[in-house]
Amino acid sequence: MALNEVTITRAIVETYMKKLLDHLDVDVAVVGGGPAGLVASYYLARGGKKVALYERKLSIGGGMWGGGMMFNEIVVQEEAKAILDEFGVAASEFERGYYTADAVEAVTTICSRALKAGAKVFNCITVEDVVIRENRVMGLVVTWSPVEMAGLHVDPLTIHARHVIDATGHDTEVLRVIERKADVTLNTPTGKILGERSMWSEKAERLTIENTKEICPGVYVAGMSANAAFGGPRMGPIFGGMLLSGKKVAGLILGAGEGY
Ligand code: 48F
C-alpha cells in the first residue's frame, strides 16, 4: 500500500485533537509526570476517574530516570515495596529493608500502567496558571512548553478539573502561582509555602506521606512538592515516599481515605 504523508499528518492531528477535546473537563488534572504524579494517575484512573496529566518536558518520569546522580537505580524501602510489586517492577533486596529497582524499568512500567488504566498524558505542556472561582481552584491554564521556553507572547488555553494535584516536585509550581496571584490561604502553618529544607532521608520520607493532603480548596499536593510546601527536607534518591504519596493522594480523592 502506498503511504500518503498527508494521511499520516491527518491521523496525528485528528487523533490528538480528539484526545485533547475529550480532556478539556476532567475529574483530576495532575501537574507533573514524576513518580508521585504517575502513581496517582494510575490509581485514580483505575478508580474510574477521568485523569489528565500535564508534563512540561518531552519525557515522563521526572527525577526517577536518573536514580541518584545518574546511576540509574532507585532505592525503595520496605513500606513501599508492595507498590513496585503491584506495578510489576522487579525489585531486589540489597540489605534488609532496602530494595533496588532499575530506574528505567520503574518509570516505563509505572507510566505504561497509568496509561493502560486510562489516564492521558499530555507531555510538552506547561501549567502556567490556575482558574479560580470563589477561592476554589477549578482548573489549569496551559501552554506549549516551547512557547514558554522561547518566551513567546502567546495566550494560553484552559482546562477545567474538579481536583488538581500539584506533583511538580521541588518547585511546587502550582502552589507558587496560587500564592502569587490568588487570595487563597494554603493549609500550612503560615498559610504560605514554607520551602524545602536540606537532606534528611528518614524524616523526609515520613513527612512526604504526612504532607500529602488537600492544601487549598481544589488542590492536593503529592510527592516532593508536598514536602517543599510544608517545609520538609529533601530525601534524595529513595523513592518509596513518592510512590506512597501518589497512592495516598489517589485514595483521598477517591474518598477511600488515608488507608487506600
Ligand atoms: O521532580 P519530580 O520527579 O517529582 P516527584 O514525583 O518526585 C521527586 C523525585 O523525583 C526526586 C526526589 C526523591 O525521591 O526528591 O526529586 O515529587 O517530577 C516533577 C515533574 O513535574 C514537572 C517536571 O518537569 C517534572 O517532570 N513539572 C514541574 N513544573 C511543571 C511541570 C509545570 N508547571 N507544568 C508541567 N509540568
Structure description:
- It is built from 9 helices and 11 strands.
- It is an alpha/beta fold and 260 residues long.
- The protein has one domain: FAD/NAD(P)-binding domain.
- Strands 1, 2, 6, 7, 8, 9, 10 and 11 form an 8-stranded mixed β-sheet that branches. The protein has a 3-stranded antiparallel β-sheet with strand order 3-5-4.
- The protein is globular.
- The termini are far apart.
- Ligand 48F binds next to helix 2, strand 2, strand 7 and helix 8.
Which helices and strands occur, and which strands form pairs?
Blueprint: H1 5-22, E1 25-31, H2 35-46, E2 51-55, E3 73-77, H3 78-87, E4 92-95, E5 98-102, H4 103-116, E6 120-123, E7 125-133, E8 136-144, H5 145-150, E9 157-166, H6 173-181, H7 201-210, E10 213-216, E11 219-221, H8 224-229, H9 240-254
Parallel strand pairs: 1-2, 1-9, 2-6, 9-11
Antiparallel strand pairs: 3-5, 4-5, 7-8, 8-9, 10-11
Helix pairs in contact: 2-4, 2-9, 3-9, 7-9
Bound molecules: ligand 48F.
Which features characterize this protein?
FAD/NAD(P)-binding domain, eight-stranded mixed sheet, alpha/beta, three-stranded antiparallel sheet, binds ligand 48F, 260 residues
State the CATH topology: FAD/NAD(P)-binding domain
User: Mean of residue pLDDT?
Assistant: 97
Percentage of residues in DSSP E strands: 25-35%
Distinct compounds present: ligand 48F
Extended strand count: 11
Q: What is shown here, in short?
A:
The chain is built from 9 helices and 11 strands. The protein is α/β, with parallel strands linked by helices. It has one domain: FAD/NAD(P)-binding domain.
